[in-house]
Design goal:
Layout lengths: L10 H9 L13 H5 L11 H9 L2 H5 L3 H4 L5 H5 L6 H16 L3 H6 L3 H22 L14 H5 L2 H33 L9 H14 L12 H32 L14 H26 L8 H25 L4 H18 L8 H15 L7 E2 L4 E2 L4 H6 L1
Helix pairs in contact: 1-7, 3-7, 9-16, 11-17, 12-17, 13-14, 14-15, 15-16
This protein binds iron/sulfur cluster (SF4) (2 copies).
């Protein structure tokens, strides 16, 4: 007689995966086609077939401590080939969302960012905080609207006040992100002890940075190969905008410390190098966002877009749009520029403070899992990609099924 297997099923977790984008999960009949076509699955216990059954059964503990959802880049090659239209690519994305909700610190933020209602509630905080700060420092009046020249700093809000508000928000995001990473690593280290194939930590870090900068994993995608372009545009424009913010802040402090105008003060002229970096980055971000929006709205191959995705996409789109509009309306001499700039600050605050709890959390958790995959030795990529006609050694699990 065979041994009894007792499963610790969590039906709430199954419902969570379904709600987070995996609504076709139950159609899966375990044929393993998805695992065979996945271009990124590693050797030994490959994905996503096993995630499908674990999600169907609600084996929450295995899934939220699994590295594999992070090794999936949602290319949807598997969903294209699935004979049951169970959309395993979307299920993997839904499991990632559930992991974020589970490792997030504090956990209520991880839950709130999953829904539109919860995110609107979180948005109220910067709306009220920044409104109160701007009114407070201007004596409860909007007298700056009457000033002849439209300048955001210091007319509406000075740079030191912006820093008093945004530096804590930024570090709140970073520190809670690090605590979430610690939770993620605790789970990974139990499931994936370091093997002899593992790389030293420094080499794993360098390898991951190279992978991220080159977007090499995205390029393995078959049906959604051009996702790579939009993602790269957004990624590098984000770096450009960070450089711009750091540059503007540095200019302010250099002049303040020197007690004189030793470098060109803000607002910067149109052809100033920092302005050029900012404008080129804003343009690249706009194109990236439009590409993403276009594909999310009109391409079936991209898969399911859930509230969690839309909130992040809209947050980035609104940051870029208000950044561009604030600048153009200021140059045009319209006082509406102040309101647009206020909105811009609200959306930036939302991004910073809730970065590890929103979809932006991928930046923390995927990067960690990719480093850990190399470190533990799970990075060895062996699989079969029928879409590209590449054939490599089949993983053991797949051989058994075949
Ligand atoms: S290809 Fe579809 S039906 Fe087959 S195991 Fe994968 S998800 Fe399930
Ligand atoms: S979406 Fe792409 S990377 Fe993810 S499991 Fe499917 S084939 Fe693999």
């Amino acid at each position: 007689m065979s041994d009894r297997v007792i499963l610790d099923a969590d039906l709430k977790f199954v419902q969570g995966v379904i709600k987070a984008g995996g609504q076709d999960l139950k159609k899966c009949y375990q044929c393993s086609t998805c695992t065979v076509v996945c271009p990124l699955t590693p050797e030994g216990t490959p994905f996503p077939r096993k995630e499908m059954i674990n999600a169907q059964w609600g084996i929450k503990d295995k899934l939220i401590t699994s590295m594999d959802p992070w090794l999936c880049f949602h290319c949807n090659d598997c969903s294209e080939q699935c004979p049951r239209e169970a959309k395993p690519g979307d299920v993997m994305a839904a499991i990632r969302n559930m992991i974020i909700a589970n490792v997030a610190v504090p956990s209520f933020l991880g839950k709130l960012t999953q829904s539109i209602g919860g995110s609107l509630l979180l948005l109220l905080f910067p709306i009220i905080l920044l409104g109160a700060v701007i009114l407070g420092i201007n004596g409860g009046e909007l007298a700056f609207l009457d000033k002849p020249v439209i300048v955001f700093h210091p007319n509406m809000i000075s740079i030191p006040v912006i820093e008093i508000v945004f530096i804590p928000a930024f570090f709140f995001g970073i520190i809670t992100g690090l605590l979430g990473i610690k939770r993620l690593i605790n789970g990974l280290s139990k499931n994936y002890p370091k093997t002899e194939d593992g790389e030293p930590l420094v080499s794993a870090l360098i390898g991951t940075v190279k992978d991220v900068l080159s977007h090499s994993k995205f390029r393995e995608c078959g049906v959604n190969a051009n996702r790579n372009v939009a993602h790269m545009l957004l990624f590098y424009s984000f770096i450009g905008l960070l450089i711009t913010t750091a540059g503007v802040t540095s200019i302010y402090y250099i002049n303040k410390i020197a007690g004189a105008t030793v470098v060109t003060p803000t607002p910067l002229p149109f052809f100033h190098p920092i302005k050029i970096i900012g404008n080129v980055s804003a343009l690249a971000a706009s194109i990236g966002i439009l590409l993403i929006l276009g594909r999310r709205l009109f391409s079936e191959k991209i898969g399911q877009t859930v509230a969690f995705d839309w909130i992040f996409i809209l947050n980035i789109a609104l940051i870029v749009a208000t950044g561009i509009l604030a600048q153009t309306s200021r140059v045009a001499g319209s006082q509406v520029a102040y309101f647009i700039y206020y909105c811009h600050l609200v959306f930036v605050f939302f991004l910073f403070a809730y970065m590890p709890h929103s979809k932006f959390g991928h930046m923390f958790y995927r990067a960690t899992a990719l480093v850990y995959a190399r470190y533990s030795g799970r990075e060895k990529s062996v699989g079969m990609n029928f879409l590209e006609g590449k054939q490599q050694e089949l993983p053991e699990e797949t051989k058994e099924v075949a």
